[in-house]
Amino acid sequence: MKTIAVDSLSKSYLVTEKKPGIRASLKHFVARKTSFIRAVDNISFNINEGEIVGFIGSNGAGKTTTLKMLCGLIYPSYGSVSVAGYIPKLREKSFLRKITLVMGQKQQLIWDLPPMDSLRVNAAVYGLTDREFSLRIDELASMLGLNTELSRPVRKLSLGQRMKAELLASLLHRPSVLFLDEPTLGLDINAQLRVREFLSAYNQKYGATILLTSHYMGDITSLCKRVLLIDKGKLFHDGSLSALTEQLSPCRFVQIELAEPVNDISLAKYGEIVHQEGQLVKLLIPRSELTSRITSILSNYQIKDLEVKDPPIEQLIGKLLALGSFND
Amino acid sequence: MIKLSKDLFKYIISWLRVPIALISTQYSLMIEYRAEIILWAISGILPLIMLAIWKEATISERIGLSDDYLTRYFVSAFIVRQFTAVWVMVSFEEDNLEGRLSPYLLQPLMPFWRYFSSHIAEQISRIPIVLIMLLVLNASIPNILWIPSLKTLVIFCCALFSAFCVRFLLHWMFSMICFWSDRVSALERLLLIPYLFLSGLVAPLDTFPTPIRNFANLTPFPYILAFPSNILAEKKIDLISNFTSLFFWAILLFLLSYLFWKRGIRHYSGMGA
User: Fold this and answer.
1) In this structure, what CATH number is given to the domain that contains residue A272?
2) DSSP for A260-316?
3) Which of B92, B85, B88 shows the shortest CA–CA distance to B37?
């Protein structure tokens, strides 16, 4: 069952442009130069109930703009969106009770008060009874590993504790659709792991649909079977991580441990040697030639150990993001 | 019957949960900023300064107003100003620019109520400070304070709250401009000018030339300050026409605010979020 349906979605912004310097500033004061920027360009996808989907792309690719349209914060310029059977831009109360948006770099908790004060307001806004409130706090706090932190002013909490408290506040009303924008931004490895475990447990327990953006590929690889890759507002890939790997890397990674050292030139004919140290050789072999070339290696050399795997997705997407654009 | 009243009580309590939670949380926050509240309260002493100027000028008799009335009017204006202070344009602009508005928009509660409750909470936290300031004033100028009748107090409280609502709605309506231009705090400064001169803050409206007084009465400003101040000063005024004007402005500003909100929200860019 489709929980999120996006069809030909586009968003354009009017932005002003100004060159540096006094003259440019005076010119800008009198007459502003404006232009339209197409942040999201005709994208379409569906997400089924209970799916966790990673939404990846470089900075400014259009991820956050898309999330904002999906949760009803901003109006689309063109196209249609349906989330949990609602049109997000209408921001009906029953729709808002079903969704949440967690922004890693922004917070809803009141800075100078303990999270518990903000949580009480949320409980009242979402109409939770006192019993529901305390049960949910206990449950979510234990899943997130929070305890006394909820009674300390937010400003006194570490970044990881704050992020966990933010998650708790965002999920107190038990939403069925979660939009997570960089939920592990700035967290250390342990805190990242904890947040990932929590999101996975929440998804399994409540069957929640999750759309997640993150620049930490660990978040994507550990949580998402499916990814959407966006660049310059256009959808570049919608499918499994493995399909993306195939698309991004036409080669597979073969690690061979030889019984005796050999001249690397003789192995180079089987693929690109990326590393050789003693009897350990690492090769990149085109997928289409993989079987025949491995058979040939096995028949021509004495092999102690052989391993075939995909290049790490982190490396592939990392390279892609570093380039800042995709070549279709 | 008992069940019905129990259900009604439960319904009222559940309905009141949101305002109670909002006001109590905002009150806790205001208590954190106690020094700021004291400074804000002190900054509202303009009517007392005006009182000193008017007394010194000894012009009350020339304009046909008694010294006693002028004293009461400016002390009342001081109290009214304290409890009708509004800063929603500044808060809304900040929240809009820094992305704090986005989480509010994603909850099933109109953001209006968060700002409204924050103002109410701030006013509650001001009560002891204003009382202390009045006691200090009375100690400095003996017998400057008076004890109004209970009826006067009740009518004054109604007028004060209505005046606050009208001023809040006026500022809230202008806050909506943020959706188009991002910055509105300069507009707040601009709004201060008619407020200062047409509300009766620097001088009672009776001292104005008739055309200016008539013009002032066409704006919401006299009902925001002069009207409740005159009630507390126990001046004989037409309560019905003044309250009618207050309600007219409240309804008009509410409708305009709602219209601007509906239009403006389409332009929200979720900046900073």
Assistant:
1) 3.30.70.980
2) S---HHHHHTTSEEEEEETTEEEEEEEGGGHHHHHHHHHHHS-EEEEEEEPPPHHHH
3) B85
What whole-number distance in Å separates Cα of residue A265 and Cα of residue A273?
A: 9
Clarify whether residues A93 and A110 are in a common domain.
yes
Q: Residue A279 sits in which domain range? A: 250-309
Q: Is the pLDDT of residue A181 over 60?
A: yes
CB atoms within 10 A of CB A67: 23
Q: How far apart are CA A80 and CA A87, in angstroms?
A: 8
The nearest CA of chain B is from the CA of A243 a distance in Å of 32
| Residues A109 and A72 occupy one common structural domain | yes
CA–CA separation, A248 and A233 (whole Å): 19
For chain B, list residues whose CB is within 8 angstroms of any CB belonging to chain A. 14, 17-18, 20-22, 25, 28-29, 32-33, 99-100, 102-109, 266, 268-270, 272-273
Q: How far is B250 from chain A (nearest CA, A)?
A: 25
- Is A121 in contact with B106 (Cβ distance < 8 A)? no
**Quick check: A257 and A282 in contact, CB under 8 A?**
no
Strand A177-181 to strand A209-213: parallel, antiparallel, or no bridges (unpaired)?
parallel
In this structure, what token pair is assigned to residue A129?
């009874």
- Chain B residue numbers with beta carbons less than 8 Å from the beta carbon of A125 are 18, 21, 107-109
Task: Judge if A238 and A295 occupy the same domain.
Answer: no
Q: Which residues of A are less than 8 Å from B273 in CB distance?
A: 64, 68, 73, 103, 106
For chain B, the structural domain boundaries read: 2-267
Residue A37 lies in a domain: no
3-class DSSP state of A297: helix
Q: How many CB pairs under 8 A join A and B?
A: 78
Per-residue pLDDT tens over the stretch A85-126: 999 999 999 999 999 998 876 678 988 899 999 999 999 999
Arithmetic mean of pLDDT, A38-55 = 94
Regarding whether A164 and A72 lie in a shared domain, the answer is yes
Amino acid at B258: Y
Domain count within chain A: 2
Are A125 and A227 in the same domain? yes
How are strands ordered across the β-sheet holding A2-17?
A: A33-48, A2-17, A78-83
Tokens of B161: 């709250």
- pLDDT of B50-71, one tens digit each? 777 777 666 666 667 787 888 8
What amino acid occupies position B98?
E
